[in-house]
Design a protein that fits this description.
By secondary structure, the protein is mainly beta. It has a single domain, classed as YVTN repeat-like/Quinoprotein amine dehydrogenase (Methylamine Dehydrogenase, Chain H, 7 Propeller). It has no helices and 13 strands.
């Protein structure tokens, strides 16, 4: 993956060599915390990747499909492309929306995923986290709607081992 510095007229590049996505990168977010040189990416390989820009490598990945196992078989995460991501300000957790119409909460410290919304198979196109009111705003294709989910009502607890791979339908109903 190559990042271009637009301040230099695209002359300066940062090449991230280690841990590339195996398919198209669909979304990227940068940490806005002073001193952090982190970014988070999501892609068509159903993966989230956390990058340390100083080290120029992926330091952690979440979900995904290495191509050997159909994505639907490897457990509780997107089974089709990740289209949008919204990390919290501390970069300790993230919400992701995908082509599969699902929204997951990923605890990036504990490395666990929780399905918090499963729509009508309309891809999730945008997410916006309101950390003050603990709400997640999202849009999806085809129905042109803007929805708001109260995260206080969502089950963001780690999925018990005996339930891994089993997602609940509409765990948190949008308001």
């Amino acid at each position: 993956m190559v990042l271009h510095d637009i301040r230099s007229g695209y002359k300066d590049k940062i090449r991230l060599e280690v841990g590339n996505h195996t398919d198209t990168v669909k979304t990227i977010k940068f940490s806005e915390n002073d001193g952090d040189f982190l970014c988070l990416t999501g892609g068509s390989d159903c993966m989230l990747k956390l990058w340390d820009l100083r080290q120029r490598k992926c330091i952690r990945d979440y979900g995904g499909n290495d191509g050997d196992v159909p994505a639907i078989d490897w457990g509780l995460f997107h089974y089709d492309s990740v289209w949008t991501i919204e990390p919290n300000t501390s970069f300790e957790s993230c919400y992701s929306g995908g082509r599969d119409g699902q929204i997951y909460h990923t605890d990036m410290v504990e490395e666990s995923n929780t399905l918090i919304y499963q729509g009508n198979k309309n891809p999730i196109t945008n997410l916006k986290l309101d950390e003050i009111n603990n709400k997640l705003w999202f849009t999806s294709t085809k129905d042109s709607s803007l929805r708001c989910m109260d995260l206080n009502k969502a089950n963001l607890n780690k999925t018990p081992k005996h339930l891994e791979g089993v997602g609940n339908q509409e765990q948190a109903a949008p308001t």
